[in-house]
């Protein structure tokens, strides 16, 4: 056998077959250090509600600020106890639209449900006559409950307790999603001191409505969002909907989602006055850091990263279509 044949066979033995090539590639990739360069677009997993709740619900004083305030146990109810109906959908429960009306406890009886089981029936007196709510549980079970939610209604005793705890006090608002006196949304300010003027019945799924005010002008902020009052030219007013105290799951309107007990500005001493002004107004501008943009607009729904000539680029996408583009951690573009 000649030398050429031997060389051919030797090279054949050393060559990578498709299976050997894939194995070698897998070994090479597996052995790459974690800090190696990205080779294409990388997308982080979508941020879920659970992720947001976990980040919001880290133990803070705001978490327990209204501890001990809640609805009364049915066993303690007495005739005349009152609720305020909060939603027009109350017609589904009571057979008539009682939104904004007060209903009072008349009596609790028991009837047989369509399944043949005993069912507690709660009767109320209302401006439109006697109405009732069938509970789907027995009267005995009802009396053992720590509380009972009457759909589309809030206990007036709960409103009074929250009013006693919050009215006249000052907090720092952490949301810019305000509402007017008709429930229409308006873009407000965040991280400014506000005073609770009053607490009343809420709308829809949120049983509490807070009337708040802030002093104008706000240093470093142009504009004065909110409602004006002829008897007070030094303040602007707005409303926030709040969940029942003690309720954290499934809501972003608990006390600790809406307020801070201390000045948030003091937690970010390295943020410039110009950037903080943008943050309070819910705006972003070129050169702001990722943390500053997060403070201004909140956590994005999606984050993508990709290599670029000048370095690593990061794209944040929000539910309303807003997109932020960062290069090496600084904002270079914002668009919808």
Entry keywords:
single chain; 336 residues; six-stranded antiparallel β-sheet; five-stranded antiparallel β-sheet
Structure description:
The chain is α+β, with helices and mostly antiparallel strands. Helix content is 22%, strand content 32%. It is built from nine helices and 18 strands. The protein has helices spanning 3-14, 18-30, 49-56, 91-94, 139-144, 156-166, 255-258, 273-281, 290-297, and strands spanning 42-43, 82-85, 102-112, 118-126, 129-134, 153-155, 170-173, 177-179, 185-187, 193-203, 206-215, 227-229, 232-242, 259-260, 302-308, 311-317, 323-327, 330-335. A six-stranded antiparallel beta sheet has the order 12-13-11-10-7-14. Strands 1-15-16-17-18 form a five-stranded antiparallel beta sheet, with no helix packed on it. A five-stranded antiparallel beta sheet has the order 5-4-3-2-6. Strand 8 (177-179) and strand 9 (185-187) form a beta hairpin. Helix 8 (273-281) packs parallel to helix 9. The longest helix has 13 residues, at 18-30. The model is unreliable at 1-53 (pLDDT under 50).
Radius of gyration of CA atoms, rounded to a whole number: 30 Å
Number of helices: 9
Question: What does the overall shape look like?
Answer: elongated
Sheet with most strands: strand arrangement: 12-13-11-10-7-14
Tell me the strand percentage band.
25-35%
Enumerate the spans where pLDDT stays under 50 for 5 or more consecutive residues. 1-53
How many extended strands? 18
Order of helices and strands: HHEHEHEEEHEHEEEEEEEHEHHEEEE
- The structure class reads alpha+beta
Largest sheet: 6 strands, antiparallel
Mean pLDDT: 84
Helix share, percent = 10-25%
- End-to-end C-alpha gap: 72 Å
